[in-house]
Specification:
With about 240 residues, the chain is α/β, with parallel strands linked by helices. It is about 50% helix and about 20% strand. InterPro entries: ClpP/crotonase-like_dom_sf (IPR029045), Enoyl-CoA_hyd/isom_CS (IPR018376), Enoyl-CoA_hydra/iso (IPR001753), Enoyl-CoA_hydra_C (IPR014748), Enoyl-CoA_Hydratase/Isomerase (IPR051683).
């Protein structure tokens, strides 16, 4: 079963997360297939830029609780997006939760419709947004991030733009995206690659410094009793035992 759709138009490779029955959750299989598709696009001289989008009403619900990727695999995917020698643009028309926000912020540009919503829900299931902090923390407002990390509250698209999760939002995501793609098509490929390298240097420093510690933290928390209770409660559609 193919989990990533691929289309191309005028040098723009569109990769679509295509597991809507699982809300495009980041399973081990989806992460591996997306990594392969990104590698193909990154090595293809005919590709000027990559658009990362989705089918269904959810861009990504975060880690697949039934078949989660290894933390190292998720780190590798996020770094691959940041390091890809082509700009990666997120196109979002649905909801983004938890690990899906790691994908979103790893992209160089992120555009969403006003219908999209966003939330760091990790604390509500007994874990922390550990690995996804690698791209999230360098690219978002620290005071706002403290609130949304600690509470799990939902953000609308306008707030997501304000705090740095998104580049832009509009009623028609493709209308909002059109000038972005036009600009990328008009840019020299080598200049794009070098300019992206300038922009991602600080994010990659965070990967170099913190990836090992955050990977270990993620593994420890996901194997904890609190995570077991939180995930069980989520799957059973009830409050976990710590809710007061």
């Amino acid at each position: 079963m193919t989990l990533i759709g691929r289309t191309r138009e005028r040098g723009v490779e569109t990769l679509g997360l295509d597991a809507p029955h699982r809300r495009n959750a980041l399973s081990a299989a989806l992460v591996a297939e997306l990594a392969g598709a990104l590698a193909d696009a990154g090595g293809d001289a005919a590709v000027r830029a990559v658009v990362l989008t989705h089918t269904g009403t959810t861009f990504s619900a975060g880690a697949d609780l039934r078949d989660p990727p290894a933390p190292e695999a998720l780190v590798g995917l996020l770094r691959q997006i940041v390091e890809l020698p082509k700009p990666v643009v997120a196109r979002v028309t649905g909801h983004v939760r938890a690990g899906g926000l790691g994908l979103l912020t790893a992209c160089d540009i992120a555009v969403a419709s006003h219908a999209a919503t966003f939330a760091f829900t990790e604390v509500r299931i007994g874990v922390a947004p550990a690995v996804i902090s690698l791209p999230v923390v360098p690219r978002t407002d620290p005071r706002a991030l403290a609130r949304y990390y600690l509470t799990g509250e939902r953000l609308d698209a306008a707030e997501a733009v304000r705090v740095g999760l998104l580049t832009a939002a509009g009623d028609d995501v493709d209308e909002t995206l059109a000038p972005v793609l036009d600009g990328l098509r008009r840019a020299a490929p080598e200049a794009l690659a070098e300019t992206k390298r300038l922009l991602t240097a600080r994010v990659l420093e965070t990967f170099d410094q913190d990836a090992a510690d955050l990977t270990a933290l993620s593994a420890r928390l996901f194997s904890s009793a609190a995570a077991h209770e939180g995930m069980t409660a989520f799957l059973e559609r009830r409050d976990p035992e710590w809710v007061v």
